[in-house]
Write a structure and sequence with these properties.
This protein is an alpha+beta fold. It folds into two domains: 131 residues, Immunoglobulin-like (Sandwich); 142 residues, Glutaredoxin, CATH 3.40.30.10. It is 16% helix and 26% strand.
Length: 368
Amino acid sequence: MRSGWISSVLVGALGSRRALTGGLYPPQGVPIPPVNAPVSRTGYRRVMHISTRVSASIFLTILVISACSAPSPATPSPSPAAAGYPGWPGGSEPLDPPEVIPLLISNDLAAGPNRFVFSLLDRQNELIAGPDVSAGVSFYDLAADPATPVTTQESRFQWTVEGELGAYVSSVDFPRAGDWGVEVTVERPDMPATTTRAVFPVRTESAAPGIGERVPASDTPTAVTLDEARTISTDTDPNLDFYRLSVADALEAGKPFLVIFSTPAFCRTRTCGPALDIVKDVAADYEGAEVNFLHVEPYQLEAVDGHLQPVVGEGGQPLIVPSMGPDEWNLPTEPYVAVVGEDGTLRAKFEGVAGEEELRAAIDDVLG
């Protein structure tokens, strides 16, 4: 098998599961009570299609696909496959398929500090990530020196769904944009250590707002009653406090806030539902604190026969809200969590997977 084995494995894993790329889940929608009052804010338009859906065995594989539906970055990076670095996937020389396959969850990586998230598959496309499996990572600036790592560290495993699904997280500072590689050293109980590699692009600037940048003052939907909240959220048990303020309102209030872009009902990965639940659990610990919590659905929603459904545009694709699009937050995936300081600048961001400890640390930081 040639050096493009990673792409082949992913195509094989996904090609046999056509249901993962078609239709919404659940198809019946989300029931809502009749509400006569209009939703406080609307004004949606079509900007892109987000990749989501449920699959316990390969949910992290699907997160890899989400990059395909992301908006084009402002500064394009060279294609790793075209670079052809010796000893790395995408090169001209044949490489034996490894025992373990890295699945990169983070796709909005840019020069500077980054939160690097990944998981691991075996040759049978089964997830092997867990607290008993260690994963050391070495990062390589491939254009500068594909043989010498820039930095090496031990990644941290964290549960996404406690006891069921999880991923590895590392903090890494990329000094420049370009083609980068990660070598993962995997150690499993009663098995010899093995290494695996992946190549990925690092942009000059993040597609989404970068750390320290002022976030867009998006006019996201709001509600003043629970009935109204159920017309703008697919959460089956919405917390009204998450919908009292728009992002623009939260910025004007001059307090730190956390905003999560996620769709609990219409998701194709196991992370989009639990993501909001995790944030709600964390928010309960900060009741009465000087911090606001917001939830924004990425899809435009409408009531059809008493059920919430995404509005569908040309080609049968769901339409998303303006705040997700390139004129505002320009988010490459969902779920996506942002923690914003009282000055309106982005202090922390979490793409795809976020644990309670990480969120609490970010909130405590903005609260001083």
